[in-house]
Give the backbone structure.
Amino acid sequence: MKSIVWLASYPKSGNTWLRVFLANYVYNSEKPIPINQIHRVGIGDSNVKSYRLVTKELIDPTNPVQGTRIRPAVLQAIVNNKADINLVKTHCENAIAYGVRLIPPELTRSAIYIIRNPLDMIVSYASHYGNTIDEAIEGIGRKDNSLLGVSDTVYQYLGTWSNHVIGWSKARKFPVLVLRYEDMLNDPVEAFGRAVHHIGLPFDQERLERSVRFSDFKLLQEQEQKTSFVENSDNQELFFRKGKAEQWKTELTDKQVAQIIQDHGRVMKKFGYEV
């Protein structure tokens, strides 16, 4: 059964913001959904708990081969709940790892892919993972770039930023809605409205606008300051840092900008990111 709707992105590109919106839209509450409950709508594909539920083996999250081998059973277990739609968050590229297709089309209904200007993404990426900007730039240019398995998550295969974008945006075996982070900032009602239509959720304009208000970045920052956010890393004070476009103009050196353009300029231009 094809019921998985992937919420996909390279890390720090707006995936969490989309999931916050969808949680508010799906639950249709009169007050904002707590940020630490958004997993109730968009389950992650790397959660170690899910892997332990489908196997009697002891799971070693730091072993990429083991986690990848179990992945098909984890995704099948999600589909087995018989729901028409299962929203699943992923940072994995649409590719093959250790002989396993990471995004199986036979289980996939569709996908929403969020893309962000890599010049801005790299600033948030470096902060979140505790890298220098130069280390982060080198990382997103490597085909073997991954998020290593830790205590609560298994390996996640990113690859290069360019390959990640092309692999998802050019998928042919299931429909993909590409949302630019910058368009989400400029007109969130229009952008998130397209997400609602793409998923096939009942559309209601008032509900849409309320869910957008409940997903406002300042509101998310206020929630995080009061309760913290379970998805934040130990490397930064806040997960919801700035939520702005073009921060690279004051954060990156000319050399760093040039390196990103050299590595990813062709794909950047394709999606309207020109310097």
The two ends are 44 Å apart (CA to CA). The beta strands are 4-9, 43-44, 86-90, 96-97, 100-101, 108-115, 146-147, 156-157, 176-180. Confidence is low (pLDDT under 50) at residues 230-239.
